[in-house]
Design a protein that fits this description.
There is one protein chain. The protein is built from three helices and 15 strands. By secondary structure, the protein is mostly beta strands. The strands form two sheets. Strands 3, 4, 5, 6, 7, 8, 9, 10, 11, 12, 13, 14 and 15 form a 13-stranded antiparallel sheet that branches. It has a two-stranded antiparallel ribbon with strand order 1-2.
Length: 285
């Protein structure tokens, strides 16, 4: 504001200080307040970095950041105790199997899968198709067994009816050449997660709260020597070293609760080779 300018047909002075105590000062202040209010109303709440805690910290004599700093009242600096965890899931770029539910018919068995046991059928929720399980059972993607790629990802959507009802079991198994289950990643009761490899528990984590009503995603990002698992964007398992683990495929198992109006629904199983980090992609491309 150090240089003069025009506002409509009005030539402004070089400095706003020239309007101190004048009606123009009040007009400019009013415009600024209205502008800030409009911008605030239009910006999504999640875009804001300021939460109000900063002001509270300042009022108590603390500072919001800076090691060794002190507040204006001489009190100790307030520490920033927020934890920032990197969400590092990167989906594989070469798809080996993906069930997008296209071409399915209501009431029929999903044709991209093989049945182990149980009762599975295609249903429609709103305008979208899902696989529904009505009896404890498992299905396997219709692909040939083969050693898994050195780096791969798995994703699967499931529907949760929210904390007001009983949660179901959604389980993704790794299987060996004999069809035996040698690894397991699950979420049960909409909150409890587990990763086991070769009969040994590797991670068992409870989410901070039960899942909300709607679509959620189980995710696996693995290499020949490590495994990470996620529920939505929350990492629930991080195993840096896995030895003697040689799966050749997957199966999906569900165990529904007998509760009316709370069906077991899953879809969108995606198995892909790759899963390079952003740095690796930038280095190559």
């Amino acid at each position: 504001m150090t240089g003069g300018t025009w506002a409509g047909d009005l030539d402004l002075e070089e400095s706003l200080a020239a309007y101190a105590g004048e009606p123009m000062e009040g007009a400019i202040r009013s415009v600024l307040v209205e502008t800030v209010g409009l911008v605030t109303d239009e910006v999504p709440k999640e875009y804001f970095c300021y939460t109000g805690k900063e002001e509270a910290a300042a009022g108590s004599g603390g500072a919001t950041s800076g090691e060794g700093t002190r507040g204006t009242s001489g009190g100790p600096a307030a520490e920033d105790m927020n934890l920032y965890v990197k969400y590092d899931f990167v989906p594989g770029d070469r798809v080996i199997f993906y069930d997008d539910m296209k071409g399915e018919e209501e009431g029929e068995f999903p044709y991209r899968w093989n049945l182990d046991h149980g009762v599975f059928e295609v249903v429609r929720l709103g305008k979208e198709y899902w696989i529904m399980c009505t009896d404890d059972g498992s299905v396997r993607p219709r692909i040939q067994d083969a050693p898994l790629p050195p780096k791969y990802t798995v994703e699967m959507e499931f529907y949760d009816n929210g904390p007001g009802v009983g949660g179901h079991y959604f389980e993704i198994y790794w299987v060996d050449g004999s069809g035996d289950e040698i690894g397991l990643f699950y979420i049960r009761r909409s909150r409890d997660t587990y990763l086991g490899i070769l009969g040994e528990e590797k991670a068992s984590k409870r989410l901070q709260e039960k899942l909300s009503k709607g679509v959620h995603v189980m995710r696996i990002m693995a290499t020949s020597r490590s495994i990470k698992c996620f529920i939505d964007n929350v990492r629930v398992a991080n195993v840096p070293k896995v030895e003697g683990f040689t799966p050749v495929g997957f199966k999906v198992r569900t165990n529904p609760w007998s509760e009316e109006g709370n069906p077991v629904l899953f879809r969108g199983f995606r198995f892909a080779e790759g899963g390079k980090t952003m740095r690796e992609q930038l280095d190559e491309e």
